[in-house]
Amino acid sequence: MEEAENEIIKPSLGKETRQLLKDEGLKAKKSLGQHFLVDGRALGKIVTAGCVSGDDTIIEVGPGLGVLTKELARTAKQVICIEIDAGLSNSLGSRLSELANVKIVNRDILDIHPGEVLPPGETRYKVIANLPYYITSAVLRHFLESEIPPHLMVVMVQKEVAKQIAARPGKMSLLSVGVQLYGRVEIVAAVPARSFHPVPKVDSAIVRVTGHNQAFIPVKDRDSFFRIVRAGFGAPRKQLINTLSHGLGEEKEIILRTLLEADIEPTRRAESLSIEDWCRLWQVFQAG
Fold it and tell me: How many helices (H) and strands (E) does the chain have?
C-alpha cells in the first residue's frame, strides 16, 4: 500500500493547481466552499482508504480540478463526477475527455438520486470525495438514506465534524447516530489546512464509512426511529425522561416505563446512548 501512495506524492501539486486555475480562468468560490487538495500524501491516503479496484463504480462529489478523479480513474471501472460549478465542470470535461471511464455531471448532488447516474442495474458503488464543508452532513445523509446506499464512503471533511461522526457513546450526537446507523466509521487520517488551496481556517480528516452487512432499522421505519432520536437530542444536557417526554409529547410515566423496559436508565443523557440502545428503545416504542 505504501508504494501505491508514493506513486501519488506530487511535491509540485500546489504549483500545478495555481497554474491550472490561472490557465483556465478559474478561481475557488467561497460560496461553494471550494478548497482544492494540493497534498499528494493526503491524496494517496484517500485512494488507499477507498481500496479502489477494477470492479468499482465510484461517485465523486465536487471533483474540482480533477486531481482525485484522475487517480481514481487509473484503477476504477467508472468514475462518475458530480460537479455543481459549471466552470469547473466544463474544464474537467475538456481536460479529461480522453478518459473513457470518467463521466462528468454538472448538477447539484442533493438533487440527484444515485440511480439516475449509476449504470443501468448497478447497485453496488462507492462514494469517494473531498466534500465542501458546508454540505457535509447533507451529502452523507443523502447517500446513506437513499434507496441505493453506497457500500463504502471515503470522504474528506472538517476535522471536528469527523470527530462528531466517529464519536462513541458518551459523546454521541444526532449526526453520529445518523451516520453510524448505516455504517462503521473510522477516521483514517488527519489532514492539515495547508494541504489545500486556498488554505481553509480549519484542519480536515479523511473518514471511511463501511456499510453494515445488515440494516439496524428497516427503510420503512427510518422516520419513526429518527423521530425518537431527534426528541432525545432536543435538549442534550437534560435527562432522557425529560427530553423524550417533551419531544414526543408523552407523559413522563409512559416514557419512564418505556426506558426501563428498554433497559435504559431514565437519568441518562442522549449522548451516552449507543446505536444498539437507540434501536432497542425504538423497538419498545413500536411494540407499545
Answer: 13, 9
| pLDDT-derived band at 7, boundaries 50, 70, 90 | low
The fold for domain 219-287 equals Helicase, Ruva Protein; domain 3 (1.10.8)
Let me know: does 155 contact 140? Beta carbons within 8 Å. yes
The CA angle 4-118-217, to the nearest 5 degrees, is 90
Whole-structure pTM value = 0.91
Q: Which long-range contacts (CB under 8 A, 24 or more apart) does 93-102 make?
A: 95/66, 96/66, 96/69, 96/70, 99/70, 99/73, 101/73, 101/76, 101/77, 102/69, 102/73, 102/78
What percentage of the chain has pLDDT greater than the value 90? 84
- CATH class (in words) of the domain with range 2-211: alpha beta
Cα gap 12→5, rounded to integer Å: 16
pLDDT of 42-59, one tens digit each? 999 999 999 999 999 999
Report the mean per-residue pLDDT for the chain.
93
First to last CA, the chain: 51
Q: To which residue does cell 486531481 refer?
A: 67
Q: Averaged over 79-93, what is the pLDDT? A: 96
Distance CA 264, CA 170 (A): 14
- CB-based contacts of 111-114 (< 8 A; 24+ apart in sequence): 112/82, 113/146, 113/147, 113/148, 114/59, 114/143, 114/146, 114/148, 114/150
Domain boundaries, the chain: 2-211, 219-287
H or E, element range at 15: helix 13-24
